[in-house]
Amino acid sequence: MNNQKRVERKLKEKNYKKFTGNKEEGQGFADRRKRKIEHEYRKMLKKEKKASAGNVKHISVLDELSEEEATSTGPTESKQRSSHKPVGTYSKAHHEYKQTKMEKDRKKKEARKRKQAVDSALEKYQQKRQANYKLLCKRTSRGQPIMKHQMEYLLEKIKKQKSSKT
């Protein structure tokens, strides 16, 4: 009887404690509070960032303006600069896009040149091999290899080795 009552009591307790934060499940409420505070903090940081970003010009634009002022020599140039509007985000992004596109094109051209050089070297090598093969494979009417071509090939090889050593 006692066992049955204990089991029933435990079942009631388990059904009663369906929320998070009880002792069995750990720090449920504390975790929820912590997450809420963290969320509020991040929200506040975003708002501050937006507010400060709207008022300040981009650093690179400021650098360009200071360089232009340093290089200016006459009053006409300063008047022209004052009529220019500050660089917007779209124009800046467009300028960066053009630069990256030009960089990619340049890299592609370099890669094509390298590939073309490798291909031409391979083709030259293959032609030389084919010519040597044709000479070395020539046979007499009886099927014997022509020794004249064999000897010439070996002589060329020896000359190349001597010239590379000295």
UniProtKB/TrEMBL annotation:
Residues 106-115 have a biased composition (Basic residues). GO terms for cellular component: nucleus. Residues 10-26, 93-105 have a biased composition (Basic and acidic residues). Residues 1-131 are annotated as: Disordered. This is Thyroid transcription factor 1-associated protein 26. It comes from Magallana gigas (Pacific oyster).
